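Order emerges. For instance:

***
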Amino acid sequence: MPRHAATLTHRQAPLVCVVDPDAASRRRVATLLGSLGAAVESFATARAFLARLPRAMPVCLIAEARLPDMSGLALLQELRARGLGIPTILLAADADVGAAVEAMRAGALDFIEKPLIDRALVTQVAPILEDDGHRAH
C-alpha cells in the first residue's frame, strides 16, 4: 500500500509493548518509556499481547518473566517460532542467574531484576528507539 507524503513527513513514535500482570509496574514502565518518546501499549497477559500482533508491531518488548498465562521464556520462544525478532527485555522480581542465562540464550536482549532500575531499562531501550527513528519506513 503506498504511503502518502503526510505519512512520510509526520512519523509516529516507535511502539514499545509492555507485558506485565502488575498494573502499577505497567504504568511505571509506560511513563518511563513515554518520556523517551515511545508510544507504549500495555498488556496484562502474553496471550493478549500475541493477539494484537501483527497489527501493532513493536520495536521493543518489555515482559515480566513470570506471566499468568505463559512464562516470558515461552513468550520469547513463541515470537521466535513466528519469525519475529522483536528485541525483548525480561523483568523479574525474583530472578536468579540460571533464569537470566536461559532468557539470554532464548534471545532476550537483557534480564532486569525488579524493583525496576530505571537507568538499566533506559540504557537498553533508548538505542532501540533511536535506531527505529533512523530506519526507513
Summary: The two ends are 12 Å apart (CA to CA). DSSP finds six helices and five strands in the chain.
